[in-house]
Every structure is written in structure tokens, then in C-alpha cells.
Design a protein that fits this description.
- The protein is mainly α and 401 residues long.
- The protein has a single domain, classed as Growth Hormone, Chain: A, CATH 1.20.1250.
- It is built from 16 helices and no strands.
- Helix 4 runs antiparallel to helix 5 and helix 6 (100-128) runs antiparallel to helix 7 (131-160).
- The longest helix has 30 residues, at 131-160.
- The two termini are 35 Å apart.
């Protein structure tokens, strides 16, 4: 059934692809509620624990172009399988770690192998969908990631009540099962494989690839990918601080707010994004989403000090973000003149760059006042929208309904 649906290019029966995306994001988010515990257990400073969290994004940034290129040569399925196998193994290493050095190595490998899953999964979707179907399919892939962001911290918190290492054993089992599902049930989507020379040193070419992307005609869309990721990761760090200082919320209330944001995002990407994109056109949909994100960021420090207003702003962030990311990715897949694996690897690198710098700059901006990170994010998002309309004439002219 899956095989025939792929051959007919119908965007359905992709459950195991969505599950792989879910597992890769859980790998990123599950550790956050456990970081303070690990910090106390290993007597690590706040800076060291922050570096442990950031090491995931850095490894993903460096390795995504390598995995994307490899998927053009070997196929999408083998790369996703390698990513899931590596994730499973790195979860086990993390669970069994007895010192900070091993923890860092395990976290770096988690980021590196997570960087294999998403570029290959997105390239898979580009292979098997038409331009009209792609936004909806990528939206569902994004919804699976949003669910991973919701469930990851919950999985980490709930399972850790049975033991600090239990969440990582559970994640290792989930990744291994997903590996088996993909191995037995998913056909390969790539029909024409490239002959790129592949060597491990390609991982060191991530930054040159990013610079090349900035000189490419797709640069405006890569910039939007970075801005989206930067703004979201910036405010995922700063919203808990704002919730504590201004709204006087505890950790549970803040967690519920993030859950609501993720739920809105998942619902929008599963059920609404394809319809909205068809109605407004892709460029207007992405621009509306970005401007909605900017408005929500402005609201967070300005609304009255009630949790209801904060939850409303978080819901708007979830809705607006969901209207943005799948459309940007779909536009990149449609406009690229390079193989989809390379293109998605570069796209993932730009997003990883945003996840790396977002929290770092957000913490610095907070020294200028608790509203500064949100105002900065809103400003940079608005500037990015106008940049695209000025520079991406080839996109706006082709995508105006």
C-alpha cells in the first residue's frame, strides 16, 4: 500500500517518516527538564550545562549538509536508517555516561545523527509529492516535529521519576523500533542517484556551504529559515523568564503554555496549512505567518500581567509559526536547481544556525531589559519579510495567486 501510494505521488501513509521526525526532535527537547539535575549530579556550572545543550545544535549544523549530500548519492532511506541507528546508540551512551566528557560526546552524536533524519525526510517528501501537495506533506512533517517539542520535555520529566536514565533508554528503544519500521515498510523514493564524492571531511564544509547559500538565488529563503529558527529558539528560552518575572507563573504553568503553543502549531500544520496556502498563495501565507509571529513577540512584554494574555500570545506564536516554516521549505524545494538532499541539508544548517545563536543572543539581550529579546525578534522578523519582497522577485512573481 505504501509503495503504490508513493508511486502515485499521493502524500499519505507517511506515518513512519513522521515518527522519525518526532523521534529526532524528542532527542533535542527531552533533555531540557533534566539539565538542572545533571548539573547538580556532575557538579557542573550553568555555563557548562548551557554548552551541553548547545552542543546538539552545533553538531547538527556541521553535519546536516553532509547527510543531505549523502542522501542524494545513497538514497533517502539509508540515510534515515543511519540517523535512527545513531540516535538509538547515542541515547544509550548518554544513559550510561559516568562523566561530563561522555555526556558531551553523546549529546554531540545525538545532534549529528539527528541532522541525518530531517534533511533526508524533507528530501523524501520532495521526491514523492507534486508542488501542489508539498506544502501539506511538509506541514504534517512539521506537525510531527511540533509534537516532539511538546512531548520531549514531558517524556523527560515523567520517565525520570522512575530513574534519571530511564528517558534515554526509552528514547533508544523508540529510535530502534522506528529503524525497524522504516527498514521493512518504507520504499526508497530517490529514482536518480547522484555521483557526489563523499568523505567525512565534508562535515567541515558546513560553513562554506552556508556562505555559498547566501550567494545563491535561494538566499532570501535561507535567510527566512534562519530568522524563523532564530526567533523561535530565542523566545523559547526567554518566555520562561518573562513568565516567571512578569506573570509570576511556576514551571507547570509555563509548561502548559508551551504545550498549548505546540498543540496549536500541530493542529494548524496537520489540518489547515494546505488549505490556507491554496487560498492565499505560498508567499502571502509565509509572510502572514512571519508578521503574525512579530505581532505575538510584541504582545508578550506588552500585555497585562495575566496568564490568559500570555497563553493567547503563545497560541498566536504557534499558529503563525505553523503558517511559516512548511511554506518556506516547500518554496525552497520548488525553486532549487540542486539535488533535494543537498538543498535540504543546507536548509537544515541554516535552521541549526538559528537554534545555536537564538538562545545565546537572547540571554545577552535580556541584560537590556526583559522586553528587549522580544522587541528584537519582532524587528528582525519584519525586516526579513521586507527583504524577501525586495530581493526574491523570482518567487513573488511566480507565487502570487
Amino acid at each position: 500500500m505504501i509503495y503504490f501510494s508513493l508511486m502515485n505521488k499521493k502524500p499519505k501513509n507517511f506515518f513512519f517518516i513522521y515518527l522519525a521526525a518526532f523521534v529526532s526532535v524528542v532527542a533535542f527537547s527531552m533533555i531540557f527538564p533534566l539539565l538542572p539535575i545533571y548539573g547538580k549530579y556532575f557538579h557542573a556550572s550553568a555555563i557548562t550545562i548551557g554548552a551541553l545543550a548547545a552542543s546538539f545544535a552545533l553538531a547538527q549544523l556541521l553535519c546536516s549538509p553532509f547527510w543531505g549530500t549523502l542522501s542524494d548519492r545513497l538514497g533517502r532511506k539509508p540515510v534515515m536508517l543511519m540517523g535512527l541507528a545513531g540516535l538509538s546508540a547515542s541515547f544509550l551512551v548518554f544513559a550510561l555516561s559516568g562523566n561530563l566528557v561522555t555526556l558531551f560526546l553523546a549529546r554531540i552524536f545525538q545532534g549529528a545523527f539527528s541532522g541525518a533524519v530531517m534533511p533526508a525526510a524533507r528530501a523524501f517528501m520532495a521526491d514523492v509529492t507534486t508542488n501542489e501537495q508539498r506544502v501539506g506533506a511538509l506541514g504534517k512533517l512539521g506537525a510531527a516535529q511540533a509534537l516532539g517539542l511538546i512531548m520531549g520535555p514531558a517524556i523527560g520529566g515523567i520517565f525520570s521519576a522512575q530513574g534519571l536514565v530511564i528517558p534515554f533508554f526509552a528514547a533508544a528503544i523508540a529510535a530502534a523500533l522506528n529503524f525497524a519500521f522504516l527498514f521493512f515498510f518504507l520504499p526508497e523514493s530517490l529514482k536518480e542517484k547522484t555521483r557526489h564524492k563523499i568523505h567525512p571531511m565534508l562535515a567541515l564544509h558546513a560553513f562554506p556551504r552556508i556562505f555559498q547559500g547566501m550567494r545563491n538565488t535561494l538566499a532570501p529563503l535561507f535567510v527566512l529559515s534562519f530568522v524563523w529558527s532564530f526567533a523561535m529558539s530565542n523566545n523559547q528560552i526567554n518566555i520562561p523568564v518573562m513568565g516567571t518575572e512578569k506573570f509570576h507563573l511556576d514551571a507547570l504553568a509555563i509548561g502548559l503554555g508551551f504545550t498549548a503553543m505546540g498543540a496549536v502549531s500541530s493542529f494548524t500544520q496537520f489540518f489547515l496549512i494546505a488549505r490556507v496556502s491554496k487560498l492565499l498563495g505560498q508567499v502571502k501565507t509565509a509572510s502572514t505567518g512571519l508578521l503574525g509571529m512579530a505581532a505575538a513577540f510584541l504582545l508578550v512584554p506588552l500585555v497585562p500581567g495575566s496568564a490568559v494574555f500570555l497563553y493567547g500570545a503563545l497560541g498566536l506564536i504557534g499558529l503563525s509559526s505553523a503558517l511559516t516554516r512548511p511554506v518556506i521549505t516547500a518554496l525552497i524545494t520548488e525553486e532549487t536547481d540542486q539535488p533535494q538532499g543537498i538543498t535540504m541539508g543546507i536548509t537544515n544548517a541554516f535552521e541549526s544556525l538559528g537554534r545555536l545563536f537564538g538562545p545565546l543572543l537572547g540571554g545577552f539581550l535580556f541584560t537590556f531589559g526583559n522586553a528587549a529579546p522580544f522587541l528584537f525578534s519582532a524587528g528582525i522578523v519584519v525586516c526579513a519579510v521586507f527583504f524577501v519582497f525586495q530581493k526574491a522577485r523570482f518567487i513573488t512573481s511566480a507565487r502570487t495567486p
